[in-house]
Specification:
The chain is an alpha/beta fold. Helices cover 46% and strands 18% of the residues.
Length: 331
């Protein structure tokens, strides 16, 4: 037999052996507790999502699921903890978009590479950003807000919850899309920012619906529009930016999302089983109801490949905003 044929046959047998070994591990998995690492503090929306999903995984897989908060380093501490553990499906990552698509756009020197080091498992939940205005702002709808901003360039500023946050970048995407002029005013969190919007000290803000929705419902701020591709099920009378009729806002989308990932090298059968279990949980109306308490909507069932393409598209969106808005990048 030719040497090349022998080499190809050996390589094929090796690949089959690896597949069989991975399948055997997946059949036995899980046999012990699973750890969900969350790169944020306890009480964060991503943490709450992880705890709900942990209960669902435990119920469906028959093993305890422990949430391990590893905050710090803009998410890198938690991600590194996942990458330092064996890629065996017992240490998983549940995170929002920030460490996966925003932070890489702002920092070229991260200790991890999303595409190289992580394998997406499933999208979990999402919430839109809401454009809110002070009660005395001289406009009550999106068209009026845009007219007012155009007529008074630089007069009306936008509050945000920190440089490089989704609140900040959504306002920048809005500004770039329409060619507007305004500045951002930074706060340490939504609470103080929304108080100042209510008082009219800063007239406008894009804020996550997890915090802004209650303020809008209470009449403390005026809801103008949501940044998701469609109207939110929690505020169906508030239009989406994309339906404004302005071609420059067609396709406008900025949402906070959460997903589950594993370290690269995790056997594909384990990834597939996790994906199936997460999708099964998301189809349960009881889980959707629990998410609704946080103004979170569940994603429809998705494949790991769909999640991977979703991350790539989201990452490209924020890289473009960072570039066009000339936001400082850590090189």
């Amino acid at each position: 037999m030719a040497a090349a044929s022998i080499t190809r046959r050996a390589a094929g047998l090796a690949a089959l052996g690896a597949m069989a070994a991975g399948g055997a591990r997946a059949q036995a998995w899980p046999t012990r507790p699973i750890r969900l690492i969350v790169p944020f503090p306890a009480g964060n929306a991503g943490d709450i999502t992880a705890r709900v999903m942990g209960e669902e995984l435990s119920k469906r897989l028959g093993q305890p699921v422990v949430v391990d908060n590893r905050a710090g380093g803009s998410g890198s501490i938690g991600i590194q903890a996942v990458l330092q553990a064996p890629a065996d499906g017992y240490t998983l990552l549940v995170t929002s978009l920030s460490p996966l698509s925003i932070v890489p756009a702002l920092n070229a020197n991260l200790p991890y590479d999303v595409e190289r080091d992580l394998v997406p498992v499933a999208l979990i939940g999402w919430t839109g950003m809401m454009l809110v205005a002070a009660p005395d702002f001289p406009a009550t709808d999106l068209a009026g807000v845009i007219r007012e901003l155009r007529a008074n360039p630089g007069k009306h500023n936008f509050a945000n919850v920190g440089p490089g946050t989704l609140s900040h970048l959504t306002a920048e995407l809005f500004r770039i899309s329409l060619g507007l002029e305004f500045e951002g005013v930074t706060y340490r969190g939504s609470g103080q920012a929304l108080m100042d919007v209510n008082a009219g000290r800063v007239p406008l803000m894009f804020d996550g619906m997890t915090s802004s929705l209650a303020q809008a419902r209470g009449g403390r701020v005026k809801p103008i529009a949501v940044s998701s591709a469609r109207r939110s099920i929690f505020a169906q009378d508030v239009p989406a930016l994309a339906e404004s009729g302005d071609a420059r806002l067609a396709g406008f989308e900025s949402v906070g999302w959460t997903g589950m990932l594993a370290a690269r090298g995790t056997p594909r059968p384990i990834v597939d089983r996790l994906n199936a279990v997460v999708n099964e949980a998301l189809a349960d109306p009881a889980l959707a109801q629990r998410f609704a308490a946080q103004a979170l909507e569940v994603f429809p069932p998705s494949t790991p490949e769909h999640f991977a393409s979703y991350i790539r598209a989201d990452s490209e969106r924020w890289r473009r905003v960072v570039r066009e808005a000339k936001i400082s990048v850590n090189n």
